[in-house]
């Protein structure tokens, strides 16, 4: 047992029992971050801020929400939106923060790809990040069902129906997931459980792991310069802060992040109060009706690129049904990002994309293609739209097929030079 | 050495029984997710066809889905693979969800077609797609005929014959 | 400078995506339609001035057998339930009919109700409309009835009262404890569809859409069972104001609190920036 002495103060008392000083040093004041970064490195902290918003507003909504098909819609749209003081604010914040989280996740993800932060020792950061993406997607999807509006119902119906594409047991799996032949009360209550307990627990755990994975490889920097963190930290601690290439997480790195968070949250509250339709679809203010389909069914914007890959293959090819090709492409699109560190065959080159010409072109093709997929995922799939969607989906698959080739070529050229 | 292997064995046995317990518990959890008996029994709906007039179209709800029941009139072209014959009367029973993306088509009595407002799909009176994006005819729900009553959800001989041919 | 450039790129791609999935996609899904027509010009306007005194006689002889005029103390001859089961739908009270409905529409409605309401896909000789046509009236007589109804209903009425008269016979407003006067089972029989509750309509359809929709439902949704009710522009605005009062009653709070929240975050951001500068000067 440790040597316990009479404490010199509260902090000392805690420190003798919990080693809080050492803990703060390791986690905060001596956790080193490179100096050569830009505001894109603050997206992680913005995400934490948004997650905190989701958690707190979610708790408040939970006090009045009723997970029952007969009560859910009114508990949200009457009790919470109209009766509870500031209930509307919590709901708007919750809905908009969910959408905003995905916007920041996408920026965060593309930053990682652009600056090559997914490889050379940083694979685990990438993989846990992708697990978080999937967990957040499930969280968003299950949450979208809870208000029990038309879009909640029909999106749930269409998405759970995707599982019927699994060979042989597909139809049974769909019924098993729903707990009924259609999306119904049993579905609502189980998705409620997922949304408020299981998935948040998973997300919290994976966030912790995601942070932990950063500790050994360290955060990347703008020019992917490899730093000797111990030497840099020593320089910093000796007081030569201007010479050192690193700064401590607290307070230096976070002071900038707080500014970025503030900047973003200013915009966030504008969206919450004046411009929320993109995150809270008007159609969802109509109560769910299993006997009436809305004229247009589409998922939330952050799932659209995925949805369009599924839908893009609208005609049979070589005896294979369009729907099966779509499903295979969909599964491919949802797993291929996990494989990114291994598809990049030039693993040792972590230079940012603008220093890797072929990769640079690949990157912007990916960004533009995903935006095209997103937009056409919402448009009605008729006429020209269907073909644009088809080619964009093919391009998406193609990009990941050529990635190993162009990176391999790049590696070879690098060796020669 | 004997001591050692016995300890190994007990260790493995403990691991083994834990694994068995884990699998059984997962099985129990899987079953908790199954549709409840009350939900399953609600999956069977009886419809009496005797009162329907010629050319009439009824929509009944079965497993949360709309089911169209059409009493074909004499002029309506027959389709031996999809018609249910009760004496001289001919009926079609169809799941009222467009096979394209699952919207609910509406019945147009004048042209005797089912039209889907979502993406313009059209089905004839037997549920065969005649226009637009639908990839296959409207599905026929499993049914069993008892005289002039049909039970949706049970697979009768006529249903099995239809699905075999189609 | 580099950060500004990066920010510009991020904002650009975010804005393009937003534009594509919101304004552009919605313009594709909901093609543009002609704006609301509050003149009801396709029904030939009356070219005679009505005589309210003669109108009174005509109304007493022809209308009050089915309709009540509560403002004059004339109760409807049947209870709503009985009326619904005999006519299919509860006949409207005529206290304010002369003001909330457009004059031109009223005249057209009296002559040919099915044409005025645009319900020819629901009613025909086999299934006649509940209100008989007064096509046998002369233009002068029709103008007299319209003038009389306009006379008795001249006092201003509340948004809610307009809603109850114009919409409340078929539609409920659950969040304001208003139940449709016609029971919903009769509704389904009468028009082949249940009339939805309108509590959240303002959030699901938005005022702009409702303006054209209420004016002429059939133009917006093919085959819809809802009749054109012929509200004047002012009364229709009252209906929409009422929908907003019930379905979006925190709008004013939202819009004023929004400024405060944005202001607060702006000040937070400014202080955070100053703090960051001071720390980086000293420690980076």
Stated plainly, the CATH topology of the largest domain in chain C is called Cytochrome Bc1 Complex, Chain D, domain 2
Distance between the termini of chain C: 19 Å
First-residue to last-residue Cα separation of chain B: 69 Å
The ordered string of helix (H) and strand (E) elements of chain B is HHEEEEEEEEEEEH
Oligomer: heterotrimer
Q: What is the strand tally of chain B?
A: 11
Largest interface: A-C, 55 and 50 residues
Total beta-strand segments of chain C: 0
Cα shape of chain B: elongated
Identify the overall geometry of chain C: elongated
CATH class value of the largest domain in chain C? Mainly Alpha
What do you see in this structure?
The complex is a heterotrimer of chains A (417), B (166) and C (284). Chain A is built from 16 helices and two strands. Chain A is mainly α and 417 residues long. Chain A has two domains: 38-224 and 249-297, Cytochrome Bc1 Complex, Chain C (Up-down Bundle), CATH 1.20.810.10; 304-417. Chain A has a two-stranded antiparallel ribbon with strand order 1-2. Chain A starts with 9 loop residues before the first helix and ends with a helix. Chain B has helices at residues 2-32, 37-41, 157-165; strands at 45-48, 57-62, 65-72, 84-86, 89-95, 106-108, 113-115, 122-123, 129-131, 143-146, 149-152. Chain B starts with a helix and ends with a helix. Chain B has 166 residues and is an alpha+beta fold. In chain B, a hairpin with a 2-residue loop joins strand 2 and strand 3 (65-72). The model of chain B has no long low-confidence stretch (mean pLDDT 86). The longest helix of chain B has 31 residues, at 2-32. With 284 residues, chain C is mainly α. The two termini of chain C are 19 Å apart. At the A-C interface, helix 4, helix 5, helix 11 and helix 15 of A face helix 1, helix 10 and helix 13 of C.
Brief sketch in words of this structure:
With 166 residues, chain B is an alpha+beta fold. Chain B is 27% helix and 28% strand. Chain C starts with a helix and ends with a helix.
